[in-house]
Write a structure and sequence with these properties.
With about 280 residues, this protein is of the alpha/beta class. The chain has one domain (about 5-265): UDP-N-acetylmuramoyl-L-alanine:D-glutamate ligase (3-Layer(aba) Sandwich). About 35% of the residues lie in helices and about 20% in strands. It has eight helices and nine strands. It has helices at about 20-30, 55-70, 85-95, 120-130, 140-150, 160-170, 230-245, 250-265, and strands at about 5-15, 35-45, 50-55, 75-80, 100-105, 135, 175-180, 200-210, 215-220. Strands 3-2-1-4-5-6-7-8-9 form a nine-stranded mixed sheet, with helices on both faces. α3 (about 85-95) packs parallel to α4 (about 120-130). It binds pyridoxal-5'-phosphate. Pyridoxal-5'-phosphate binds near residues 107, 116, 232 and 233.
């Protein structure tokens, strides 16, 4: 059977825990082949991002074209996109080659607080890329930023019904489906806001399908761990791998959520800050 190919367009994380480095490990762990277009390089470690070098967008264009004109891709995964110009290039190049399914992780600010996409580029991401996206994987702050950027009201979610409502709102911005990650809002068993420290809290990720208007929930225990660096990148790459392997969206998401959950639970402490999850399980 031919190996499944995923084109990853994202930034490099010199600490190895997030970005392209994590994406490639996740894809390898799923038996998929990764080709890459690097949008930016970060100098970072587990304590934070020290600096970012933005790769010129015309060079990103060459990388994407080189990959798609030769090896090709079954799925495209988008992570840190670095600049508004690069977003234009991605939209143009993917449209020029017939666009495969796109998993878009709208990376904007790292957990440590570094700006990974300039604020001025958010509108570009929203208007150019969301309409091409098969599944968008925002966390709650990213979902709210995208909706606010469109000039729409966005109340702060407090319970599961609010999360589902937020997922629907963001889906109306263009993607076919949205996986809204609930990690920033730990819930009690009856789906109300929990205190962060509450050990019995749960995290609910909401998959909203804009075509069928159906919501599917993935529920996991709220894990208290310092090793969560790169969870967003890893989840989106695992979804991309599962889609490339032929799973439908619900199974692709369910299995990716589980992959990340096990990765957090079995992580080893690396560095003095927020370390990477385990990708080899
Ligand atoms: N660095 C790069 C290159 C990334 O793509 C990302 C997230 O997508 C991060 C850092 C931030 O990862 P985290 O927020 O998990 O620390």
């Amino acid at each position: 059977m031919a190996v499944k190919r995923v084109l990853v367009i994202a930034g490099s994380d010199s600490s190895g825990g997030a970005g392209l480095e994590a994406d490639q490990r996740v894809l390898a762990a799923h038996g998929c082949y990764a080709l890459t277009a690097t949008t930016g390089l970060t100098a970072q470690n587990t304590l934070g991002v020290q600096d970012i070098f933005v790769v010129p967008s015309e060079f990103v264009r060459k990388q994407i074209n080189a990959g798609l004109e030769d090896v090709g891709a079954d799925v495209v995964k988008l992570g840190m996109l670095s600049s508004a110009e690069t977003i234009d290039v991605i939209a143009e190049t993917l449209q020029a080659h017939s666009v495969p399914p796109i998993v878009l992780d709208p990376v904007m600010i790292s957990t440590s607080g570094a700006e990974l996409l300039p604020k001025a580029a958010i509108a570009k991401l929203r208007t150019r890329l969301l309409p091409m996206t098969t599944v968008l994987t925002p966390n709650i702050p990213e979902a709210r930023l995208l909706i606010q950027d469109a000039g729409l009201e966005v109340p702060e979610p407090r319970n599961l019904d609010d999360l589902i409502d937020l997922a629907k709102r963001i889906c109306s911005l263009g993607p076919k489906a949205v996986l809204l990650k609930g990690g920033h809002l730990p819930l009690t068993k009856d789906h109300q806001t929990a205190r962060n420290s509450e050990e019995s809290a749960i995290v609910v990720d909401v998959l909203y399908d804009g075509e069928t208007s159906e919501s599917t929930l993935s529920q996991t225990g709220y894990l208290i761990s310092k090793n969560t660096h790169g969870t967003g990148c890893s989840l989106a790459s695992a979804i991309a791998a599962n889609l490339a392997l032929g799973k439908d969206m619900r199974r692709a998401v369910r299995s990716a959520v589980r992959f990340v959950e096990v990765g957090i639970k079995t992580s080893s402490d690396l560095g003095r800050g927020s370390g990477p999850i385990n990708h080899f399980h």
